[in-house]
C-alpha cells in the first residue's frame, strides 16, 4: 500500500510503514494498533477473534489487549481507511489491509477459505449499478460463493 491507499498484492509491510500510515491517518501510534495491522497484513481476511488469538503470544509485549480492544482498534482503522471490513456468508466480519482497489472475494462453501478476486468489470466500482438519481457509487462488494480447488475433489 502506498500512502494513497493502493496495495502491492503479496507484499508485507513492516512496523515502520504502519507507524507512518497511522500518523498519516491522524491516529495515535500505539503498539497495539501497529501489532493489529501487522497481524492482519500477515493474515488477510482474518476476523477480530483470529487477530486476538494471534496476539495471545504477544501479551507480555502488548499488555492487556482484550478482544473488545481489538474490535475498537479495527473500528478506528476502518473509519480512517487503513483496513477494509467485509462480510462473508456464514462467518464473522473479516478485515484486510488490501484497500483502495475495490477487489472482491470468493468464499468456499466447504472450508470457508477466502480468496481475493480483482475488479470484475472495468474500473472501480467494477460494476455499473442502476443507482438512484444523485447517488454516487464508489465501491461495489461482491462475494462469489463456490467450492475451492482443495475441496472440489471431495
From TrEMBL:
Cofactor: Mn(2+); Fe(2+); Zn(2+)
One cellular component (GO) term of this entry: cytoplasm
UniProt-annotated location(s): Cytoplasm
Keyword tags: Cytoplasm, DNA-binding, Iron, Metal-binding, Repressor, Transcription, Transcription regulation, Zinc
Free-text comment on the cofactor: Binds 1 Mn(2+) or Fe(2+) ion per subunit. Binds 1 zinc ion per subunit.
Pfam families: FUR (PF01475)
Chain residues that bind Zn(2+): 108, 111, 148, 151
InterPro entries for the chain: FUR, Fur_C, WH-like_DNA-bd_sf, WH_DNA-bd_sf
Family in the record: Belongs to the Fur family.
PANTHER family cross-referenced by the UniProt entry: TRANSCRIPTIONAL REGULATOR FURA, ZINC UPTAKE REGULATION PROTEIN
Protein name (Swiss-Prot/TrEMBL): Transcriptional repressor
Source species of the chain: Pseudoclavibacter terrae
Amino acid at each position: 500500500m502506498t500512502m494513497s491507499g493502493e496495495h502491492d498484492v503479496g507484499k508485507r509491510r513492516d512496523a515502520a510503514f504502519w507507524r507512518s500510515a497511522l500518523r498519516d491517518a491522524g491516529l495515535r501510534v500505539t503498539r497495539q494498533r501497529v501489532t493489529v495491522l501487522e497481524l492482519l497484513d500477515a493474515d488477510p481476511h482474518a476476523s477480530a477473534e483470529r487477530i486476538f488469538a494471534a496476539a495471545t503470544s504477544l501479551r507480555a509485549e502488548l499488555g492487556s489487549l482484550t478482544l473488545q480492544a481489538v474490535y475498537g482498534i479495527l473500528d478506528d482503522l476502518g473509519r480512517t481507511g487503513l483496513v477494509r471490513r467485509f462480510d462473508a456468508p456464514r462467518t464473522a466480519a473479516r478485515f484486510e489491509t488490501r484497500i483502495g482497489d475495490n477487489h472482491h472475494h470468493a468464499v468456499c462453501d466447504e472450508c470457508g477459505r477466502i480468496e481475493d478476486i480483482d475488479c470484475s468489470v472495468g474500473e472501480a466500482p467494477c460494476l455499473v449499478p442502476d443507482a438512484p438519481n444523485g447517488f454516487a457509487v464508489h465501491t461495489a462488494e461482491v462475494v462469489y460463493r463456490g467450492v475451492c480447488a482443495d475441496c472440489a475433489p471431495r
